[in-house]
User: Fold this.
Amino acid sequence: MILNTAEKLLMNNPIRSFIQWNKEAAMFEEMGGKVSGHKVLEIGCGRGIGTEIILDHFEAGEVHAFDLDPYMIELAKKRLSGISGEKLNLFVGDAENIDAPNNTYDSVFDFGIVHHIPQWQNSIKEIARVLKPGGKFYFEEVTQKALNRWFYRTFLEHPTENRFSGKQFVAELEESGIQVGGNFTYWLFDDLVLGVGTKRNLKS
Ligand SMILES: C[S@@+](CC[C@H](N)C(=O)[O-])C[C@H]1O[C@@H](n2cnc3c(N)ncnc32)[C@H](O)[C@@H]1O
Assistant:
């Protein structure tokens, strides 16, 4: 689902950018470390703040980033126009059907998008498919607890069924071959779940 106008305002502002740079990046780094030189995918990149963090802070070698909403990709292209095409590829795409062969990426980042996908389990299977064995999945997700709150119900638009708790999200990752174990945490009264999982090497 693409965002309604209220959520676009909530996402595309300096406060969201500050939280991503100063809180979420630090939590991700603590749980998963940097991705220096990695080939990285970002799903649902929005206007590209996460993309910039992955390149500048996490030191990725190259980032491919997509969003379902062409408007968001236009914003991201404008914001990141100074970055060379060898390091950055921005495109319109769908996390339920990722345009990449199996085992393509060293890491995948998700800054709060999967809770927008009605059949979100499909996107988890896709992430597991495009990650290389041993590759890492960095996730920050909004739980059903948050989506049930008055503010979310009144002003924002999300799938009304098939929502997930943090525990269900992590269980789905494990089921799809991304091992998280205890490497996740809750934030903001359990409204958010953040963690890093590693794709199992099926041969080991
Ligand atoms: C809550 S916003 C987060 C944007 C950005 N990651 C951030 O943290 O600012 C969710 C984003 O996911 C995108 N999105 C929703 N469903 C998607 C899908 N199936 N595939 C790719 N992107 C999707 C929306 O268009 C939106 O930009």
Remarks:
- The CA atoms of residues 62 and 138 lie 16 Å apart.
- The domain at 5-199 is CATH 3.40.50.150 (Rossmann fold).
